[in-house]
Amino acid sequence: MSIDRSQVDHAAELARLELSDDERERLRGELGQILQAFEALNTLDTEHIPPTAQVIPLGNVERDDVVAGSLPLDAVLDNAPRVEDGQIRVPPVLDES
Amino acid sequence: MADELYRLTLHAAARGLRDGTFSSVELTESLLDRIESVDGRTGAYLTVTADLALEQAADADARRASGQDGPLLGLPIALKDVLSTAGVQTTCASRILEGFIPPYDATAVTHLKNAGAVTLGKTNMDEFAMGSSNEHSGYKPARNPWHLDKVPGGSSGGSAAAVAADECLAALGSDTGGSVRQPAALCGCVGLKPTYGRISRFGLIAFASSLDQIGVLTKDVTDAALLLGALAGHDPRDSTSAEEPVPDYAGELNGDIGGLRIGVAPEYFGEGLDPQVGDSVRAAIDDLLGLGATEREISLPHTEYALPTYYVIAPSEASANLARYNGVKYGLSDPQAIDVDEMMARIRGRGFGSEVKRRIMIGTFALSSGYYDAYYVRAQKVRTLIKSDFEAAFQDVDVIAAPVVPSPAFDLGAKLDDPVAMYQSDIMTLPASLAGLPCMSIPCGFVDGLPVGLQLIAPPFAESRLLQAAHAYERARGDLAAPVKAIDA
């Protein structure tokens, strides 16, 4: 399966991944090669086979709605690059206009 | 012997501590000296926490002096850098997490600390556990202690190299598609990946959440049983961890495997398997038969589909799990950024290495609109078929025996530019991972001077049976006629 440059650009945008031109070109070739290997899956008849998302026989796990201890705020924010008033600061997410 | 304490197994060192032959501080110093003298060549560690280790050792000695004992009390163990460690830098060998100091311990680490184990440091790995050679570390490659121009395997390459080079008594790793068994085989140590859910994943930095499982790398089977016993059990902080009771894995080992039915599947012995590796594994199976086990041919017909299935599912889950590395909460940052999307893209472009980028791209593509059913859902359906193969086989057999890796350790750089060839190094470990089954690698011989492993696979939560078979084989095998390791030459 061959992949064109616009498909690489689209996936990179969805993944919020900045890539150089060289990286994009290399990935175009590699993804094509890897997707080609995936084609083997199409040789199986899976129409009536249920998908497996996880392997353990487990349904929803519930617990009582009780407040439990949590890490101190300082410890959690220690690793954040920009902190203000106990919150993490980021560049504007919404357009101000 | 006093100057070679670092070569001991966990259980032999425990005996020495119990008998008062040496202290945990002496044992820990011996290991720190060993790390000092060989780690420059193996690259097994990313971080060595010498002061912390000596403090823990002194504490263990004090506990022992006050009458306490325990199977891991005072024993030095290494931790793969995928496990969160409170106050100790945890990077997953990624530049994007450089400087990240977790505020909490993974539950597995808490269990070790409570048991009085000494933590020596954080071992090297492929970035975010994605790789089969440890060459995708964002910091440095680790090397195979048997032959320093060969890879140690991956992604727990640093843990395997540390055990093989006697830079720890044992190490924790993680296995998503073979990342404990494959490096254990290539470095000649024992590697155990328990059933999915057997050990809490809380604090194990996520790669592919439906597959990730903590495992152990040790010098022998008894040590693997000891460590598993300390780590297994339900954890309210990981709702996928199992409520199953935890048996006394080490205490149950008695060498008796009479009547054990061993399944051998031709799918694991076909094209692509180095004939010498096949011979070595075959001889190991014959050893098991000599102990009273019986052999049955089984069929695992969907084995060949495990590779594409895994390389759709794992990167898909990874692309979602790795969305959290965006320069906001931790790791690499860009305080000057004025646009949030640009900031995230730039940080991720700068912080992730080539293999991680490749997998994020594969996963994003496989999950994207228009391709989701064709790739992701189809792979999940084939996963059902692979799992069903094992369920059918375990109607007739108790354990399955197979090779771990098709060939011994390869040269550094040999597969670096060919991702598909690198992925093929995992073909024999992926199926059991996709089915969530407990499995092990046990050293069974040497090919061209490099170690080879026997893989044993058991039904869910049959770790006792798995360890019993591995232990019986190990006793029958005796000491392998091993060449001198490059690191000891």
What does it look like?
The complex is a heterodimer of chains A (97) and B (489). Chain A has helices at 5-14, 21-38, 73-77, and strands spanning 83-84, 87-88. Chain A has 97 residues and is mainly alpha-helical. Chain A has a domain at 5-43: Orthogonal Bundle (Histone, subunit A), CATH 1.10.20. In chain A, helix 1 (5-14) packs across helix 2. Chain A starts with a helix and ends in a 9-residue tail after the last strand. In chain B, helix 8 links the parallel strand 7 and strand 8 (294-297). The relative contact order of chain B is 0.14. By secondary structure, chain B is an alpha/beta fold. At the A-B interface, helix 1 and helix 2 of A face helix 9, helix 10, helix 11 and helix 12 of B.
User: What is the level-2 CATH architecture name of the largest domain in chain B?
Assistant: Alpha-Beta Complex
> Portion of residues in helices of chain A?
25-40%
Low-confidence stretches of chain A: none
Beta fraction of chain A: under 5%
Question: Would you tell me the structural class of the helices and strands of chain A?
Answer: mainly alpha
* CATH top level assignment of the largest domain in chain B: Alpha Beta
Question: For the residues shown, what is the average pLDDT of chain A?
Answer: 91
Total strands of chain A: 2
Order of helices and strands of chain A: HHHEE
Write down the domain tally of chain B.
2
Mean pLDDT of chain B: 96
Predict the CATH topology of the largest domain in chain B.
Amidase signature (AS) enzymes
**Shape field of chain B:** globular
Q: What is the CATH third-level topology name of the domain at 5-43 in chain A? A: Histone, subunit A
The two chains with the largest interface, and their residue counts, are:
A-B, 51 and 70 residues
Structural class of chain B: alpha/beta
CATH-defined architecture of the domain at 5-43 in chain A:
Orthogonal Bundle
Radius of gyration of chain A: 23 Å
Number of helices of chain A: 3
Helix amount of chain B: 25-40%
Tell me, what is the CATH class of the domain at 5-43 in chain A? Mainly Alpha
